[in-house]
Design the sequence.
């Protein structure tokens, strides 16, 4: 039975955990399906062709652009113990009263965390001391990543974005922390929204994490959050998507796999070569999709030029 033939019903409620042996078998199966040779370093971005980018232009109907990123936060919170540091380095207090002056500032932030929007590079996940496509983990040193860094996406990623609203399938404003999105949920969202994600698409899965945070306040998302169940990953592999993003980080906490944390990160990045976008926000995009009855759009993702970084802060733009 392939992924398309799975149960299309809602994934609400507890999902069975996987043993480590079952997870490793799934990891090996997904890795064995890659259509590229050992020299590949682009991963699933190979599915996104210039023809796909041109076709994505046809998804624009309203000419409206909207950010999919959350504001960068510089205040400590339950999910953000090491927030970005924003420092003013020149202000009106130091201005020349009779000539030109500049206001200047600097920012320092973690690339990876549980609050700020960011993109994970293919060097981000080391599993059994290997990176994507069996690149040795020792390529990542104190000097940065010598291979598979975010520099792979230095020219940006542009293509057809598809948003699947999973809480709407469940009839809820958000999924509660610890809940799982199954392949059945994804298929049910497709059916409800009359949209289909496929080869080369930038797939965005809304679990309502950001709305819950906005309305109920931050919580320790490292310990409890909604995300994909690992058994949903064969469907994404079969459809050959190019990028995966969420308003959470795509992984559920606590983990569905005994003895393996962040199983979706391992399967997506390490096995399939998918760049992940974590902790986005879809609350600005959602009304436009609902009003227009359209869930596909042109999307542009522009990481910073950080040649040896394991990821980047990011501000994806949807044009609908």
Sequence:
């Amino acid at each position: 039975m392939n992924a398309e033939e799975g149960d299309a019903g809602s994934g609400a409620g507890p999902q069975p955990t996987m043993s480590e042996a079952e997870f490793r078998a799934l990891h090996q199966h997904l890795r064995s399906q890659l259509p590229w040779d050992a020299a590949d370093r682009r991963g699933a971005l190979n599915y996104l062709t210039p023809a796909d980018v041109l076709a994505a232009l046809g998804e624009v109907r309203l000419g409206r652009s909207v950010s999919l990123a959350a504001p960068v936060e510089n205040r400590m919170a339950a999910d953000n113990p090491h927030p970005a540091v924003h420092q003013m380095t020149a202000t009106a207090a130091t201005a020349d009263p009779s000539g030109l002056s500049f206001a200047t500032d600097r920012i320092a932030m973690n690339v990876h965390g549980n609050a700020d929007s960011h993109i994970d590079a293919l060097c981000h996940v080391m599993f059994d001391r290997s990176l994507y496509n069996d690149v040795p983990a020792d390529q990542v040193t104190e000097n940065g990543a010598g291979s598979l860094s975010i520099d792979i996406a230095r020219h940006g990623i542009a293509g057809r974005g598809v948003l699947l609203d999973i809480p709407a399938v469940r009839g809820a404003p958000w999924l509660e922390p610890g809940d799982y999105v199954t392949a059945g949920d994804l298929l049910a969202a497709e059916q409800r929204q009359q949209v289909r994600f496929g080869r080369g698409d930038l797939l965005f899965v809304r679990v309502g994490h950001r709305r819950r945070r906005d309305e109920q306040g931050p919580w320790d998302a490292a310990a409890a959050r909604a995300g994909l169940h690992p058994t949903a990953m064969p469907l994404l592999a079969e459809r050959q998507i190019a990028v995966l993003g969420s308003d959470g980080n795509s992984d559920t906490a606590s983990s569905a796999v005994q003895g393996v944390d962040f199983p979706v990160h391992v399967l997506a990045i390490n096995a399939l070569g998918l760049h992940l976008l974590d902790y986005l926000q879809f609350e600005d995009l959602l009304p436009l999709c609902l009003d227009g009855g359209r869930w596909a759009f042109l999307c542009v993702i522009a990481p910073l030029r950080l040649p040896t970084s394991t990821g980047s802060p990011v501000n994806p733009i949807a044009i609908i």
